[in-house]
Structures are given as structure tokens and as C-alpha cells.
Write a structure and sequence with these properties.
This protein is of the alpha/beta class. Helices cover about 40% and strands about 15% of the residues. It is built from five helices and five strands; from the N terminus they run H-E-H-E-H-E-H-E-E-H. The chain is globular and about 30 Å long. The two termini are about 30 Å apart.
Amino acid sequence: MKKNILIGLLLGMLALSSSAVAQEFTPGKVNVLRTAQFEELFLNDKVIDRPVVIDFSAEWCGWCQKMHPHIAELAQKYSGQIDFYQVNYETDLDLIRALGIGSFPTLVYIKTDGSMVVDENGYRTTSVLDETIQEVFYGK
């Protein structure tokens, strides 16, 4: 709880200093997520309708680039069931630092109850990512 409050305060300051880019969410796609949007969607005890997968990655990260097609495939598979986002190191470093993400690729799974599961296991194939999604969101 204290960590969420601290992150909320820090992200509130970041939102004031960063330019918010309002974007439409497209089901079945991996949507770009900026710092201000993260705060708006996932902090302050917001209730979300669907589970969320957020890919924290960097342009210079070869493993991140190799994993992007696998995440895109799952975004299509779970269209309308799970929302998929990507946060880019180059544009949202302050958010990445505030969340304590230190390696790439890192995936964050957000359940509908607001709890987060951080997965720093690096590159994975579509089937392994799908197994993780099933385990985290559906208990299978």
C-alpha cells in the first residue's frame, strides 16, 4: 500500500511534467502507453474491466524486439478479453524508474482487482507467454 502511494505521488509529479498523448485504445493490438495514461488508467484504486499486460521494453533491446511479435500475436488472440500495452524506455524512462523496472523485457500483468504481477524473466515465445497469461489471470 505504501509503495502504491509513493508511486502515485511520483507519477503525479511526472504527469505534470510530461506531455500526455491522448490515444484511442485498439483491441487486438499492442497499444502505446505513456506515463500520464498509466497513472490515469491504473493508479488511485481504479477499477479495470479487463486484465492488462504491459510490455516494458527498449528500442535497443534485441530480446525486446524479438518478443514483440509474440506479444502482438497474443493481443490478437485475446482481443476484447485482455488489454495489451507497451511502454518504451526512451520515451517514459521516469515511469520505468518509478516502478523499479531494471531489466528488459519486463512484463507487468494487472488483474481486474488491481493487483500486479511483475515478470522479469526476459524473452519468451508465444506459447510460454500464453501459459503465463493463463496462470496469472485464469489460475490454470
